Amino acid sequence: MDTKERRFFAGGIVALFALVALLGTLAALGCGGGGDNGGGFVTPPLSGKGLAFSPYVDSNGCPRNFGSTVDDTCLKTLLNVVNSHTEWVRTYGSTSGLQNIPRLAKFLNLKVAAGAYVVANADTEIQNLMNNVNIGLVDLAIVGNEAMQAGVPRATLIQYINNAKNLRDAAHANVPVTTCLKGDDVYIPDNAPVLAACDVICDNMYPNFGDPVTTALTNLKNYYTGMAASNQVGGKQLIIGETGWPSGGTGTNSQNFTNDNERDFHNDIVPWATSKGILAFYFESFDEPAKGEAGGEAYFGVWNNNLVLKQGLTP
Asked: What are the Cα distances from residue 111, in Å, to 50, 215, 263, 283, 308?
């Protein structure tokens, strides 16, 4: 090899290393390998152990009813209970004091999936949510929870999602925006535009409470795996927005609403999701008495409404 050939070879090696370095940088930023949701926004990978967080426990200075104003003292008390047991908290609104949860959670180094309640006062809810996004207090923005079941028209929900994304993009914030759907809603063809508007897919997945817990767990895991691979999800990250099991209550299958069943479900599904790198939010942090006995709605908490950890649960 003469001098000219050595120079050409050396130059080629330098260029090759530069290209490899560039590709590595892009990969680290999430610019390859399916990170792009198809709309140009690059979604950072989301993982960790999460809890749905709602403060209406009717004790310890916290209110009973959704919509009541929640003060920082209440929120700090509840966040301090869950802090050492989770990496994420998920919220359901951004008014009446709920907009302060991201700020307080960040003091505890928690990640935040913050929500906007879009059934009422949607514009204010979304503006408050995105204000928190744009100052770095939110890691995932959720515009509505099962909103279509609550009466929000599909086209309106899509507009809300796009409004939130526009506010995010204007502030150059790198935070994914989504809405949380319910179960098989992901498979409804008319919901394809909703899924297309979302940066990641969020679905609330509950087991069949009529099944033995072991069967319910197997079916739920298979349900998630099938949905994650589906054409509807389209390669986007699939997040479990809610899953849980009640420890009490009345109604269909209430014979299975026991502390032991909640313990067995919780202590299996949470480590399973974590081991698979699935961001899953266990529903919920605390029992909320105002939700009532029917369907076990008041008894999904890991802690009861007096902030006592339920027997045998490993948060």
From this structure: 9, 32, 25, 16, 23
Tokens 């006062």 belong to residue: 121
Q: How far apart are CA 93 and CA 274, in angstroms?
A: 26
pLDDT in tens, 58-108: 999 999 999 999 999 999 999 999 999 999 999 999 999 999 999 999 999
Among residues 196, 147, 157, the alpha carbon closest in space to that of 41 is found at 196
Cα 160 to the center of its chain, rounded Å: 18
| Neighbouring residues of 58: CB distance < 8 A, sequence distance ≥ 6 | 64, 288, 289, 290, 305
| Cis? peptide before 284, omega within 30° of 0 | yes
Structure pTM? 0.88
Distance CA 101, CA 264 (A): 30
Residue 198 identity (one-letter amino acid): C
What is the rounded (10 degree) CA torsion for 88, 94, 95, 99? Answer: 50
